Amino acid sequence: MVPIDSSGFLMVEEKEQQHNKKRRRLTWDVAASPAEQQEAEVRQRHISPPKRKDDREGHYTYNLGENLTPRYKILSKMGEGTFGRVLECWDRETRGYVAIKVVRSIRKYRDAAMIEVDVLEQLAKNHKGRSHCVQILNWFDYRNHICIVFEKLGPSLFDFLKRNKYCPLPVDLVREIGRQLLESVAYMHSLGLIHTDLKPENILLVSSDYLKLPGYKRTSQGETHFRCLPKSSEIKLIDFGSTAYDNQKHSSIVSTRHYRAPEVILGIGWSYPCDMWSIGCILVELFTGEALFQTHENLEHLAMMERVLGPLPEHMVQRANQGAEKYFRRSRLKWPEGAVSRESIRAVRKLDRLKNMISGCVSYGGLRSCIVDLLYGLLKFDPEERLTVEEALDHPFFRNTSD
């Protein structure tokens, strides 16, 4: 029995024994083991950064080395556009590099991003063989920004041309790129999808590797210009945020200006052929090194089209909507009297006929005629007369590889 004094308290000797006993240590008193410390450090590295305000345009603000959710570490900025930014990230789960499109936190861009996610998932679901369309790996909504995770690819054709000082690409390379582009569009059209924003910025080389070759020009000091050629011609089509379903109502304006089809400018309705017009403009750019229609105004754009391809068909002019009627008088384009400046008139005047443009880039007569025939077929004013994607793929330029 424990001795107790008359007051009912433990006797002093026993109290001292009780006091000297070690109390049981609670878990939060116990020092972490090396393994637990390492796990805590990993958790600390993977936490998201403090929430910041977006910039004035709704772009996500970040610092390199931070996390975009615990899974992705931000390594660099790969690009920026109207939609938002593309970040190169390290995927801790797959231990590989990815490209993440972080969309601006503005309603219309978020809506477009969700359309793109739907299209990408449909493209992936129906994918049979090689579609030449970028593959979606994941998507999530992070701090009011739609984030779409893609496989990491190489530079765009635009960036490659720019790096190459806008040198024309070799005919065989244009043929391979053109064939793949047509195959990707054929795949989309088979699903009832119209890309509507085909341009060199939205066509990416799969690999960043390239060869550096001596160019055909020398400077006045005798120095040789070098040009770059991609080691692989494999491409993938990106940016499906403007993709339209053929069976749904279409917006009045689509495509980036330089690649916009005449039926869009005239407001007479558009469908699959608007993609084919854009492909024609892209091929001319790859052959010549320069965008075909470098303009920012509708009347000047139409004047450039007529300068390169001949007069617009009267039946298309007569169908022009109210917004486009002002560009014509008695079914003829009001040019040059409607020009906004002398610079605009000079810009149109310096353009050449399409066949002459190609003649300056392709020396062999038979091949040149073949290319010109293809381009005129893709750049027919009347969308009903324009080559379909199947007809373009069956064109001799893409069937013959021994020109």
TrEMBL record:
GO cellular component terms, semicolon-separated: nucleus
Gene3D superfamilies (UniProt xref): Phosphorylase Kinase, domain 1, Transferase(Phosphotransferase) domain 1
Chain spans, region Disordered: 14-59
Catalyzed reaction equations: L-seryl-[protein] + ATP = O-phospho-L-seryl-[protein] + ADP + H(+); L-threonyl-[protein] + ATP = O-phospho-L-threonyl-[protein] + ADP + H(+); L-tyrosyl-[protein] + ATP = O-phospho-L-tyrosyl-[protein] + ADP + H(+)
Top-level EC class as recorded in UniProt: transferase
Protein kinase domain ranges (all copies): 72-398
SUPFAM superfamilies, A to Z: Protein kinase-like (PK-like)
Domain of life: Eukaryota
GO MF annotation, one: ATP binding
Keyword terms: ATP-binding, Kinase, Nucleotide-binding, Serine/threonine-protein kinase, Transferase
EC number annotated for this UniProt entry: 2.7.12.1
Family: Belongs to the protein kinase superfamily. CMGC Ser/Thr protein kinase family. Lammer subfamily.
Descriptive protein name: dual-specificity kinase
Organism in which the protein naturally occurs: Lactuca virosa
